[in-house]
Amino acid sequence: MKTLCLQLTVALIMSVLPGMASAEKTPAAGELLVAIRLKAPEKPDARAYLGLAESGSFDPTTITGQLLIIEIFSMYCPYCQREAPAVNRLYQAIEASETLRGRVKMIGIGVGNSAYEVDHFRKHYQIAFPLFPDEDFIIHKSVGEVRTPFFIITDIGPNDKGQVLWTGAGQMDKVETFINRLNGFLKQR
Amino acid sequence: MNDCKLLKHVMGCAAMLLAAIAPGPCAAQETTMQTMIYDPGQLKPVDSVLKVKVGDPAPHFSLPSLTGETISLAQYRGTRNVVISFVPAAWTPVCSDQWPGYNIVRDVFEQHDAILLGITVDNLPTLFAWTRQMGELWCPVLSDFWPHGEAAQRFGVLRTDGTAERALFIIDKAGIIRFITVSDINRRPDLKEIVDALRAIQ
C-alpha cells in the first residue's frame, strides 16, 4: 500500500506539473528571453528613447542599447506601488550616468492592466520610462506568471541579443547595487 | 497508520509540496499575503440577478466598518457621489488586488466628489486581517456579514454560495443609481469604467 501511495503521489505531481509549465518558463540568467511583442508607444519621445522608427508592434530585444531592464508590474499590486519611487530613482541614475545613458534602457509591462491603468500608474508615480499594458496576461503567462514586481536584465547588444543576464523579484536592491550590477555586465560586453 | 490514513497523509504532503512550488502573482507578498490566498479556481462568471437598475433609488444599507463606525448610504445624500465596490470574498485572488489599485486613484474620486465604499460579506475580523496586507486603504471597508449578505441581496448581487458578485454601483448625491456593472467574478473591472462613469454623472 505504501508503494501504491508513493506512486499515486508521484503521479499526482507529474500530472499537475505540465499545467504549471509556466513556472518552468520563468526567465533565468543564461537563457534567452521568450518572444514578446509590444505595441510601439504613440509618443515620439518614447519611440525615440527606444530607438523605434515606426509605430506598430516590436520585439523589445530590438530596442537600441546594450542592456534592457524590464519591470513586470501591476498597477494593482501594492508592492509595485511601493517600489515605484525606487524604480524611478534607478531610471534617473541611469540617465544621469555618462556610462549608462543610452546603453541601458528600461521598460515596464503592466500585467493584467489596461492601457488606461498603465497610464494612470505612469502619471501617479511620474514614471519617465515607457510602460506597456498586458491586459490579457499574455506576456505574464509567457514569463511564467512571475510574481510582481519582477525585474529582468536582458542583453540587447548585437552579440548576445535576448540573453537574460539577471532576474530579481520583489523589493529592489539599493540603486547603487543595481547600478554596479549594470556596470559589471557592460564591462563584460 | 492504516492504509486510508497513510493515503491521506501522503496526498497531504503532495498537496503541500505543490502549494510550495506553485507560482503566484506578487513577489514581495510571497511570505505574507499570497501564501494565504485561497484560489477557488474559475467560477461561474455571474450567479445572481440584479434587483435594481440605473435610475432607481439605491437600496438603503447601514453596515459596520473597519474603523468601528456604522456607515449608511444615506449619510452621503446631498454631499457625495458614492461608488460601491462589492467584491466576492476576502483572501481570494482577484479581490485581493482590486482595492489596492483604488488606493492610487483617490484623487480621481475626489475630483468627482465621490467616496468609495468597499463591501464584502466577510466579518470584521476577517476584513481586518485581509486589508492589513493591502497597505493603508483610504476607503471605508464595510462588512455585510450579518444578516448575511443583506445589502448585497438588496442590490441583487448575492451569489448562491453566499459570496457577493464583483460589482460596482455609482449612486449620485440624490441617492439615484447612475451606473451598474456586474463583472465576470474571475476578472477585475477596468478602472476606466469607473472613471468614465464618474465623469458622466458630473
Could you list some keywords that capture this structure?
heterodimer, A: 189 residues, alpha/beta, Glutaredoxin, five-stranded mixed sheet, two-stranded antiparallel sheet, 7 helices, 7 strands, 40% helix, globular, disordered N terminus, B: 202 residues, 2 domains, two-stranded antiparallel ribbon, 17% strand
Question: What does this 3D model show about the protein?
Answer:
- The complex is a heterodimer of chains A (189) and B (202).
- Chain A contains seven helices and seven strands.
- The radius of gyration of chain A is 18 Å and the shape is globular.
- Chain A has a single domain (27-188), classed as Glutaredoxin (3-Layer(aba) Sandwich).
- Chain A has 189 residues and is an alpha/beta fold.
- In chain A, the strands form two sheets. A five-stranded mixed β-sheet of chain A has the order 5-4-3-6-7. A two-stranded antiparallel ribbon of chain A has the order 1-2.
- Mean pLDDT of chain A is 87; it is low at 1-24.
- Chain B is of the alpha/beta class.
- Chain B folds into two domains: 1-36, no CATH class; 41-201, Glutaredoxin, CATH 3.40.30.
- Chain B is built from six helices and seven strands.
- The longest helix of chain B has 19 residues, at 3-21.
Number of strands of chain A: 7
Spans where pLDDT lies below 50 across 5 or more residues of chain A: 1-24
Architecture of chain A, according to CATH? 3-Layer(aba) Sandwich
Radius of gyration of CA atoms of chain A, rounded to a whole number: 18 Å
Name the average pLDDT of chain A.
87
The two chains with the largest interface, and their residue counts, are: A-B, 40 and 36 residues
Helix-strand sequence of chain A = HHEHEEHEHEHEEH
Strand order of the largest sheet of chain B: 5-4-3-6-7
Oligomer: heterodimer
Measured between the Cα atoms of the first and last residue of chain B, the distance is 69 Å
Question: Mind telling me which CATH architecture of the largest domain in chain B this is?
Answer: 3-Layer(aba) Sandwich
Helix content of chain B: 25-40%
Highest-level CATH class of the largest domain in chain B: Alpha Beta
- What is the percentage of strand-forming residues of chain B? 15-25%
